[in-house]
Amino acid sequence: MTIREIIEKGTELYNKGDVDGFCALYRADAVLTTPDGRFEGPENMKPYFQGLYDAFPSGGVSVGRGCEDGDLYCGEFMMEGVNTGPLAMPDGTELPATHRSVELPAMEIARVENGEIVEHRFFWDNLAFMSQLGLGA
User: Fold this and answer.
1) Using CA atoms, how far apart are residues 121 and 41, in angstroms rounded to an integer?
2) What is the pLDDT averaged over residues 87-101?
3) Whole-angstrom distance, CA of residue 43 vs CA of residue 70
4) Within 13 Å and on the Cβ side, how many CA atoms surround 56?
5) How far from 107 is each of 67, 91, 101, 123, 132, CA to CA, in Å?
């Protein structure tokens, strides 16, 4: 499986709500870095991804343009959905659902070894995200 195919498989699993299957694509010592924090190992990534999915259960992620170079993948993706569930904050608190729509462009860089994601970085504008939810400036 190519790196892009792994990314597309992960997107498909996430969009179906299969967070366990999504996290199984990561090696046990993988590191995920997002605008919300750093997560080491799939067991620490799962609550983060589950929280995002639960906050936007009718939404999803779509993969855009991307490129591969050896063990690296760099690509665009779009997160869309309506916030109908509580939104977990990095400090463990939750914000109640706003019932507002979000359309957030993002970027990712992933490194894969032996068919498993070992490093994954997501980049998006959290101020734009919060503003679309009616929570920012």
Assistant:
1) 14
2) 90
3) 27
4) 19
5) 12, 24, 20, 5, 18
* Contact assessment for residue 38 and residue 31, using Cβ atoms and an 8 Å cutoff: yes
Which amino acid, one-letter code, is at 71? D
* Token pair listed for 45: 């990534």
- pLDDT for residue 137: 57
Spatial distance between the Cα atoms of 12 and 76, rounded to a whole number of angstroms: 15
Q: Which residue has the higher pLDDT, 114 or 89?
A: 114
Integer Cα distance of 61 and 32 in angstroms = 17
DSSP E strand stretches across 2-93: 26-34, 37-40, 60-69, 72-82, 87-88
Is the CB of residue 122 less than 8 Å from the CB of residue 78? no
Q: What is the pLDDT of residues 65-79, one digit of tens each?
A: 999 999 999 999 999
In residues, how long is the chain?
Answer: 137
pTM for the whole structure: 0.92
Q: Are 22 and 7 in contact (CB under 8 A)?
A: no
* C-beta separation of 59 from 84 below 8 A: no
What is the rounded CA–CA span in Å between residue 16 and residue 112? 23
